[in-house]
Each structure stands twice: as structure tokens, then as C-alpha cells.
Amino acid sequence: MELKGSIVAIVTPFKNGKVDEKALGDLIEWHIREGTHGIVPCGTTGESATLDYEEHYRVIKFTVEVVRRRIPVIAGTGANSTDETIMITKRAEKDGADAALLVAPYYNKPTQEGLYRHYKKVAESTGLPLVLYNVPGRTAVNILPSTVARLAEIKNIVAIKEATGDMKQVSEIIRLCGERITVISGDDFTTFPLLCLGGKGVISVTANIAPKDVADMCNAWFKGDIADARRLHYKLEPLNQAMFIETNPIPVKTALAMMGKIAEEFRLPLCEMAEANKEKLKKVLKDYGLA
Q1: What is 5-224's CATH superfamily?
Q2: Average pLDDT of the chain?
């Protein structure tokens, strides 16, 4: 299994307070038809923080069942407790996930040594390939390149989702680790520059609404058609920006609702967009040809 290309951090559709499996299944099939290279259920964009354990497990298992090994399923299983992370990761492995995405432990702000020990212990508990997830804007902790280099020595730690937006940090990770770890963008606006530095793809928010263009941008790069990859990068930029008019995943779920693919429903503390922002989003979608 190769982790590369456009990997969608898929939303979790809700209907009347419950996970809408029909809508989720339809989204997954649409992604596969449009050329998406992999799916992350229960990531940040999937509102994992508001799913209870049974919902979390069910969304992962359901995604695995619908995908049927056609593309990789990288289950979001990270938590701010090492034991809890191990518990969720083992369940994802049992339910057939191909890999696990592990957000850095949030809120408790571990040291670099604590981060190393956390990931090492999780890696020792599972046979799944593991993807580190560095997003300091949400976790209040940065997995430094030197720590990534230490972790890259562990056999089943195979990739990192880098969402610092800092190309200097990405460059240092690749310089230190070489081919020992796959670097994947965690911000859509950095996908193209990260590919230029030696990264292999993106775990994408924008792919939720424009899966073909994000996949085509990656495919163009892999084929050596840099001009077409650059063209798609600039084409996608208005969408990339619009996805963060408000806190992710509020804009992307609102966009999917405008496209008729899911209900416009969130779980508190997330709520519907302000009307002024909704109008801005609607214009971006219309200009792009999505609504």
C-alpha cells in the first residue's frame, strides 16, 4: 500500500443528530469515481472530536466496508491519551483499516521526548502503518523535525501529515529523513509547494468538494507535467481559501450541503456559518462551477 496523491479527509454527514450512512456511502463512491487516491475517516474534518466511541468505530468500519480495498482507508485514531489512542487504533486494525492517522496529543502539551514515547508505544501495539499528524494550530504542540527523524526509525511509522504551513519545517523533515518517511501536506494551499520539495500528496479538505481537480493536480505532478499541476494549484486556490472562512469543517460541510450531497448539520460546539460568510462561500462555489 502506497500513501500518495489526493487523500480526502472526509466529512461525517449527520442527519437528525445521527451519522448519515447513506450520505457517507454516496460520498465515498463519488470519491472513488472521481479518482481520489485514499480516504481518511474520523479526521479533524470528520468531526472526530464530537463522535462517541461507537460512532467513531462505526464510521471507520463502514468506510472500510464501502471502499472494499479499492483505495487505502487511513483511519483517524489519535487522542491526547496514549492508552486511548492504542485502544482506538487496535479497533481500527481489527475492523480492516489500511493505516492509522495519529494526531499529536492535544491540550496536555507533551515535550518532544513525550511525543516520541507516545508514538513509539502506539507503534509497538499495532501492525498498522502509522501516519503522524502535526497540526500545532489545533494541538498546541509542534512535532519537530528532529523528533520526526527519530520516529522514522520505527518500522511501521511510515508517513507524516504536515499541517504547520511551514515549508522550512517540511524541507528540514525531508532533509533529515530522506525516503524513510513519506511527507504529506495537511494544508491544501501547501500541496503544490510540498510536492516540489519531495512530498507525496495531501490529506485534503478541498477534495471533499473538488475531488477530481485535487487528484488531477497530484497525477499531473507524478507524470512530470509541472505546468498542469501548477495550473490546477492556482485554479483550486479560491476553494482552498474558502474552506477556512470559518473553522474547518464548517465551510466544507456547508459547501457540500449547497451541492446537495449532505444535510447542513453540525454538532456543537460547531454551528452553521454566519450569513455573510455563507454568501461569500456561495459565490466562490458558483464561480468555480460547483453550485
Answers
A1: Aldolase class I (3.20.20.70)
A2: 97
